[in-house]
Amino acid sequence: MSLNSVLESVTARIIDRSKISRRRYLALMERNREKGVSRPRLACGNLAHAIAASEGDKPSLMEARNNNIGIISTYNDMLSAHQPYGRYPEQIKLFAREVGATAQVAGCAPAMCDGVTQGQEGMELSLFSRDVIAMSTAVGLSHGMFESVALLGICDKIVPGLLMGALRFGHLPTMLIPAGPMTSGLPNKEKVRIRQLYVQGKVGKDALMEAENASYHSAGTCTFYGTANTNQMMVEIMGLMMPDSAFINPHTKLRQAVTRAGIHRLSEISMNGNDARPLAECVDERAIVNAAVGLLATGGSTNHTIHLPAIARAAGIIMNWEDLSDLSSVVPLMTRVYPSGSEDVNGFNRVGGMPTVIAELLRGGLLHQDIMTVSRNGFTDYAQRATLEDGELTYVPAEPSSDRGILRDVTEPFLADGGIKLMHGNIGRCIYKSSAIAKEHLTVEAPARVFHDQNDVGAAFKRGELERDVVIVVRFQGPEANGMPELHKLMPTLGVLQDRGFRVALLTDGRLSGASGKVPSAIHVCPEAQVGGPIAKIQDGDIVRVCAVTGAIDVLVSDEEWAARKPADIPPPGVGTGRELFALMRSVHSSAEEGASAMLAQMDLVLDTVGDEF
């Protein structure tokens, strides 16, 4: 089928907007390839340091024509998703030797868990950990020892950070090596029920702890369709991992077979391989649009309305929320995966998973088929299912969905649009995810109750002060204020109020995860309160309208009164738990719509200074 006209026009708009920055980026990557640090250019002393502990691989590493894979790992054994990576480097080295290549761990980046830090002070480090991961990736690759790169990472800020760092070494072919989701535990509906009972004081902490342990119970990603699993979808639909590798469970023969095939393929596409595929050429404007389409078609995490612009910017590509909103108008919602449905990613994968989604989107003209991928035969490979036949990895064409309650085809979707809306009004601009919201809650008009700390919302709830129609405003939660922590801890409380029949909405310059669920939420408000954005002028009792139908976020006061109001006083900065170490990042960040990155904001200033002279 021919390409959808809106998809085509949005792509053209991004290409035109990015002409200068993309040209500079590609020129810099060519400079890296021609003149940058690489193994053939290292002095003998440099090379001796790099191979001193490599034992049997030393002869290959001293031969410049051989392929050496640089591994960037985000392993730790506190994150269930990253625990399987502990043994991956040794496996990757074995797989590389099978095809005459070598592999070395180039560096390790930190990997924090938003599930652990939700509602805690440590969450204020979360978003900026993405920049730390990107810079750590750059440090590892700066040694110039590698002809290709294997990225080991899965979770929330980690995959975007790995890509942002690797893209500054975009002359190197790169592949993400996933580890997969844990097997399903306690049904999600039951987990939510216990959480809400706990908020209401109807069950104790022991019951809550038992339910949480039954939900998060083994190695692998959490099984709800939040940011971590949206990462895997996004990288697969961009063609940067092996086909159908996102949602295979850890420690299975199929997972090992796909990993092995990935390392063999990474050797083939390396700088010294027979089919070099640099990351800079794989991640172009079309691949970024494909990632956006995947986000919309699967009802993915709203965090990617921040991450995707940041990843794009690292490749010299400029996209914004208008692009996402326009794409959302034509990309149908094809999946219902928890929190927008009852089944988790294992159920989604069982009934067809990513190969079926990609096959359907291609059939509907909603993906760029002509992108460069890491797979041998191009993007059509991603519409195939991975399977084992006599112990060998085999790919077969995707089948139609086996359960239309979880996954539907492109012509009969759950919703005609992708559910990511750009909202605007006298409060500013924001993002709204409507795909999990019931129609009767798409418009909320109610008095505001203003907070500067999410913990104060819970306290007000316990005092009975929120038993009414209400728009909860939680501000001074943006990147410059406190690092833009996720506010997912609010969801059980607001969910209880909604279930009691009240009309409830959340308005914030902070973030929510992909697990935000059923409560109407206008998030990532720009400009943020910390810089004097209009959200800082809202007062308790103001009537606020949050309407996903019209795309409006407005305080219903006269223009004269609104213009005359002064912003609220800025709260003091948070200190402790290492937050003071990130003060510099908070002070030089870009906006949420531009990716909320201190690193990229400063990078652009440097590149503007040097222009095309490298």
UniProtKB/TrEMBL annotation:
Superkingdom per UniProt: Bacteria
Cofactors named for this entry: [4Fe-4S] cluster
Residue span, Dihydroxy-acid/6-phosphogluconate dehydratase N-terminal domain: 68-378
Keywords linked to the UniProt accession: 4Fe-4S, Carbohydrate metabolism, Gluconate utilization, Iron, Iron-sulfur, Lyase, Metal-binding
Gene Ontology BP annotations: D-gluconate metabolic process; Entner-Doudoroff pathway through 6-phosphogluconate
Protein family according to the UniProt entry: Belongs to the IlvD/Edd family.
Protein name listed in UniProt: Phosphogluconate dehydratase
Source organism of the structure: Neokomagataea tanensis
